[in-house]
């Protein structure tokens, strides 16, 4: 399809900066032109027009760490410490989830994320051959990276699921869908198995011709203060230099590694992350809600480390709103450092777009609105009291806009949401199915 999207402003996150009264031209899955509205209309008179004249256009947001199936557990167990939350509430309920439940949870999360302007999502969960998260991402029209979570107690089963995931889904939809390998955490995966999983990824990536064809190695790290003690107690290893330093000594860090959370970091951790070009997914709201702490991302950014943003799951957030996440990421660092300039609105938006693409090895295709890039575009409607008047587009997006201000969403050149209406799947039916699934799960774990 061929479209012209006309707007009040375009925030390109690229070389052209902010373009007033601009229009974007898309053909098939790509952006082919960007310019002033009148100029673009003259050049492409027969292209179908999408009216976003009361909107800011920007790249689709990129959520680099979540667990979309867990949208089914939203509000199920709140106001608890992380390991009590996991061990006593979340994991017991998850044991009862079928592959169909996971798929329904994935669909629910995908439509929620799309509604709030997220076009690319990186999710970590339990893969099953038939119904799974990646199928939900694909069917809703999102772009995504889906992984299978690996533990030391089910190694053989995990490798089977990884092979199924990679064979069936990695590269599907002209690389709209990618696979990843996700050791759960250093306290649930042994040193030996961490090394094996990294070697597995490295071997697979030897066949990749482009960065976006590579598998990502995605892991929870340094999330809680007592994580080093947990690792030491479980595996009898030295973690005194920090969790990331421990992973560095195992030789498992690198450019394809995405470390989620990174709250409790030592100076050695920061040094080895910089040295190995390991990427970070910062999850400020989940970390606060679970009282895990605050990641010093300003130090990581100053060190030149790629820092992206994630919501974590709707079970620990309790939403998949990347606008809320951007605002929190900026404000928390200001309060932490007592410096209002430490994370600007521009830096926060970069973490949700440009840096998100870098974190997923996708920066050659997404994260910016430029000619030749994938047509992943969102439109934020301005005709609302909380977005009036307009002085600065980026400030508005980060500090004033809400996820539900997103009016149109395009992924891979296809209109996924138009005038607030999802076009790819039946939202009402998915929500009904999610409620039914919740009731069945509660019956299985009666307390």
Structure characterization notes:
With 447 residues, the protein is an alpha/beta fold. The protein has two domains: 2-59 and 367-412, Urease, subunit C, domain 1 (Roll); 61-359, TIM Barrel, CATH 3.20.20.140. It is built from 17 helices and 17 strands. It has helices at residues 37-43, 82-94, 99-115, 133-140, 155-169, 172-175, 191-205, 227-235, 243-249, 267-276, 284-289, 297-302, 322-337, 345-352, 354-359, 393-400, 427-444, and strands at residues 2-11, 18-20, 22-27, 30-36, 48-59, 61-66, 118-125, 143-150, 177-183, 216-221, 257-261, 279-282, 307-309, 377-381, 406-411, 414-418, 421-422. The strands form two sheets. Strands 1, 2, 3, 4, 5, 14, 15, 16 and 17 form a nine-stranded mixed sheet that branches. Strands 6-7-8-9-10-11-12-13 form an eight-stranded parallel sheet. Strand 9 (177-183), helix 7 and strand 10 (216-221) form a beta-alpha-beta unit. The model has no long low-confidence stretch (mean pLDDT 96).
Q: Tell me what the CATH architecture of the largest domain is.
A: Alpha-Beta Barrel
Strand content: 15-25%
CATH topology of the largest domain, what is it called? TIM Barrel
Q: Give the number of domains.
A: 2
Q: Characterize the biggest β-sheet.
A: 9 strands, mixed
Number of strands: 17
What is the mean pLDDT?
96
**How large is the radius of gyration?**
21 Å
- Straight-line N-to-C gap: 53 Å
At the first level of CATH, what is the class of the largest domain?
Answer: Alpha Beta
**pLDDT < 50 runs, ≥5 residues:** none
DSSP helix fraction? 25-40%
Helix- and strand-based class? alpha/beta
């Amino acid at each position: 399809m061929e479209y012209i999207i006309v707007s009040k402003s375009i925030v390109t996150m690229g070389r052209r900066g902010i373009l007033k009264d601009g229009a974007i031209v898309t053909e098939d899955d790509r952006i082919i032109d960007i310019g002033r509205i009148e100029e673009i209309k003259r050049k492409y008179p027969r292209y179908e027009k999408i009216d976003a004249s009361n909107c800011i256009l920007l790249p689709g947001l990129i959520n680099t760490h979540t667990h979309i199936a867990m949208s089914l557990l939203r509000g199920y167990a709140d106001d608890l410490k992380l390991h009590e939350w996991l061990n006593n509430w979340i994991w017991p309920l998850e044991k009862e989830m079928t592959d169909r439940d996971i798929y329904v949870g994935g669909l629910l999360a995908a439509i929620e994320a799309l509604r709030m302007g997220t076009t690319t999502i990186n999710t970590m969960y339990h893969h099953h051959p038939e119904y799974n998260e990646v199928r939900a991402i694909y069917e809703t029209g999102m772009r995504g990276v889906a992984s299978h979570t690996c533990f030391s107690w089910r190694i053989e089963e995990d490798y089977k699921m990884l092979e199924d995931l990679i064979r069936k889904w990695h590269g599907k939809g002209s690389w709209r869908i990618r696979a990843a390998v996700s050791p759960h955490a250093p306290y649930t995966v042994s040193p030996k198995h961490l090394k094996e999983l990294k070697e597995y990824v490295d071997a697979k990536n030897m066949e990749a011709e482009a960065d976006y064809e590579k598998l990502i190695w995605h892991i929870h790290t340094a999330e809680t203060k007592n994580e080093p003690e947990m690792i030491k107690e479980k595996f009898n290893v030295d973690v005194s230099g920090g969790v990331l330093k421990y992973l560095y000594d195992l030789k498992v860090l690198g450019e394809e590694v995405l470390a989620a959370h990174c709250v409790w970091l030592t100076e050695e951790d920061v040094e080895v992350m910089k040295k190995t070009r390991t990427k970070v997914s910062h999850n400020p709201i989940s970390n606060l809600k679970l009282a895990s702490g605050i990641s010093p991302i300003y130090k990581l950014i100053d060190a030149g480390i790629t820092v992206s943003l994630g919501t974590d799951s709707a079970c620990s957030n309790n939403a998949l709103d990347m606008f809320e996440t951007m605002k929190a990421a900026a404000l928390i660092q200001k309060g932490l450092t007592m410096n209002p300039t430490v994370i600007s609105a521009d830096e926060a938006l970069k973490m949700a777009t440009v840096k998100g693409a870098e974190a997923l090895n996708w920066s050659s295709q997404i994260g910016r609105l430029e000619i030749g890039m994938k047509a992943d575009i969102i439109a934020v409607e301005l005709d609302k009291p909380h977005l009036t008047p307009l002085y600065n587009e980026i400030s508005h997006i980060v500090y004033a806009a809400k996820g539900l201000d997103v009016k149109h969403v395009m992924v891979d050149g296809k209109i996924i949401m138009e005038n607030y209406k999802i076009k790819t799947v039946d939202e009402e039916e998915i929500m009904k199915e999610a409620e039914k699934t919740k009731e069945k799960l509660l019956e299985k774990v009666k307390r």
